[in-house]
Specification:
By secondary structure, the chain is an alpha/beta fold. The protein has helices at residues 14-24, 36-42, 64-72, 97-103, 134-162, 206-221, 231-235, 244-258, 276-285, 308-318, 327-333, 376-390, 408-418, 435-439, 454-457, 462-469, 480-486, 498-511, 513-531, 533-545; strands at residues 2-7, 29-35, 50-54, 80-85, 107-112, 117-119, 194-199, 225-230, 265-269, 289-293, 301-303, 306-307, 321-324, 340-342, 365-372, 397-404, 424-428, 444-447, 474-477, 494-496. Strand 7, helix 6 (206-221) and strand 8 form a beta-alpha-beta unit.
Length: 550
């Protein structure tokens, strides 16, 4: 029996997938179909009898390179094609049937990252021709487009009745940069009364919590009326909601909820499917837009045919002001806007503060990593930490991985496999209100970034600030914002590069309690002096005030 294996799952899963396949088919011949770039990265794949490669920039199921590679497999007459799919929830396989049809495989199955194998079923009336259910996604996208056209026509009628919106153009030359390099001189102009934060995430996720809810609270404290409209919190729309039509409907509902806010400045957090609402409000009412970027997420699809990267570039150009969370993002987007400013995703130092002296009282020195493990870039960082701790012996230390996300089941399996002399514990997601108490129970924080990608370089390290605010020493990768301007190596934290240096710094902190206390106290001072929400709020106030008539 000949099996063709292709995969979108991260490389760390491939070995497990092969073991699972060998259990099910002991005497089978397994060939892999992958891009040449993937094979170069993986090196020799154990348990594979042959490799069929294709050349392409991205691993995209619908790239011409990949479809051409599939066509090459037809002459091999594979009995079964197994798609190792990057989706632990077991949803969304239907479009992969097209791949099986093109490959000529007699049978097609999907193996998820939870190692659950499922047979894919064709739509009954399309089975004879072997057509894929991918067509429903295209139909959904076309229906969403039709809804957008209908929405635009209704809004045009509304605009014709209410009259053309008057909008004072922003004179970018009047926004002067202060000594910090980020604070403009206020330029009051008539018409605006409040700031309306628009996001698609809910309060539970850091970007919306810090850069919308917390920023809004700080602006209200400083005298500016502010409100948050979260698609998740107001409509119950999950940011992973499937279907372009449902996303467009969510935008239409938000639009008619907010179209009365004619004098509000719209503070739009992230460039995702919710970008339609502020653009329509700007077109209808002349609302000003402040666009906030805190992450890279360039190749993620907002809609079936639209990537977030395109949305971000467009929004930066259409906005009156752009605020970014990292110095790297400022460099990347400065070419699209003359009015771009840098405000990091900092911490509320009144909520996150040291208690019990700021140090945990544990039998072992507990090193902590906290975050949502939603995809390969984050998983890679967590796997790196587990490998570091699995190689340390005879030390009274422990690694705790705390968080949620689709890849947690796999992380728990890896933790069991890597827990040797040093315990590795996986803690389920903790509500933000309980996080300060949890951080005060650990002894040190870990923030590794393995790949020097734009995603990692653009991160504003929220968790780093939270550890520091709780008086915890940290070990961060010598990369990105931590290296550039946050951590003074050996003073308010440690920087490391590569597995050997990380292990060395872990042991250094574990064996020296006085060093942990000294570094934790210095970290807390850094937060109070430079990285607290109260300080950043004053800069935000000045930036926002340049768009308001106050």
């Amino acid at each position: 029996m000949k099996i063709l294996l292709t995969f979108t799952a991260p490389a760390v899963y491939i070995k497990e997938a092969l073991v699972e396949l060998r259990k099910a088919h002991k005497d089978c011949s397994i060939h892999a179909l992958a891009s040449q770039k993937t094979i170069d990265r993986l090196g020799e794949i154990p348990g594979i009898d042959g490799v069929i490669t294709f050349r392409g920039r991205f691993f995209n199921f619908f790239s011409f390179a990949f479809l051409g590679g599939l066509w090459k497999t037809r002459r091999n007459r594979f009995d079964e094609m197994v798609i190792f799919y990057n989706n632990p929830t077991g949803e969304g396989y239907s479009h992969l049937e097209l791949i099986g049809f093109i490959s000529g495989a007699r049978k097609i199955s999907a193996l998820t990252t939870t190692l659950k194998k499922e047979k894919l079923a064709f739509w009954p009336w399309l089975k004879k021709r072997g057509l894929a259910v991918e067509s429903y996604k295209v139909m959904d996208a076309l229906l969403a487009l039709a809804l957008c056209v209908f929405w635009f026509l209704l809004a045009s009628l509304q605009k014709a009745v209410s009259g053309k919106a008057k909008r004072v153009p922003l004179d970018a030359e009047k926004v002067e940069v202060g000594a910090t390099g980020r604070s403009p001189v206020p330029d009051a102009r008539a018409g605006s009364e409040k700031v309306l934060f628009i996001c698609h995430f809910g309060y539970d996720l850091p970007s919306a919590r810090v850069r919308c809810y917390n920023f809004a609270d700080e602006l209200k404290r400083l005298g500016i009326d502010a409100e948050v409209y979260s698609f998740y919190d107001k409509q119950g729309i999950d940011f992973r909601v499937p279907g372009d039509t449902r996303r467009v409907i969510a935008n239409i509902r938000a639009f008619y909820k907010l179209c009365g806010e004619k004098k509000a400045v719209l503070y739009v957090q992230k460039g995702d499917y919710h970008f339609l609402t502020p653009l329509m409000l700007q077109w209808l009412n002349g609302n000003r837009i402040i666009f906030d970027i805190d992450d890279w997420e360039y190749d993620v699809h907002s809609f079936h045919f639209i990537k977030c990267g395109w949305i971000k570039k467009y929004m930066v150009q259409k906005s009156d002001m752009c605020i970014v969370a990292s110095s790297f993002l400022k460099k990347e987007y400065a070419k699209y806007s003359r009015n771009i400013h840098f405000l990091p995703t900092v911490v509320d130092h009144k909520k996150f503060f040291p208690s019990n002296g700021g140090f945990g009282k544990n039998d072992r020195v507990v090193f902590s990593w906290v975050g949502m493990i939603w995809g390969p870039p984050i998983l890679e960082n967590v796997v790196f930490l587990m490998e570091c701790f699995s190689e340390l012996e005879g030390e009274e230390i422990q690694l705790e991985i705390t968080g949620g996300g689709e890849f947690i089941p796999h992380v728990k399996r890896l933790a069991l496999a890597n827990s040797k002399d040093v315990p590795i514990k996986v803690v389920d997601w903790i509500h933000p209100s309980e996080l300060p108490a949890y951080l005060n129970r650990v002894d040190a924080g870990l923030l590794p970034l393995i790949t020097e990608s734009k995603y990692n370089l653009s991160k504003s390290p929220t968790k780093l600030f939270e550890y520091m605010a709780c008086g915890k020493p940290t070990i961060s990768s010598r990369m990105g914002e931590a290296k550039e301007w946050i951590i003074q190596d050996g003073v308010n934290g440690l920087l490391a590069e590569g597995k050997e240096e990380f292990k060395e710094k872990i042991l250094q902190l574990a064996r020296d309690e006085e060093m942990r206390k000294r570094m934790g106290n210095a970290a807390r001072r850094s937060i109070e002096e430079a990285f607290c929400q109260e300080k950043i709020a004053k800069e935000l106030f000045t930036l926002v005030k340049s768009q308001l008539a106050i």
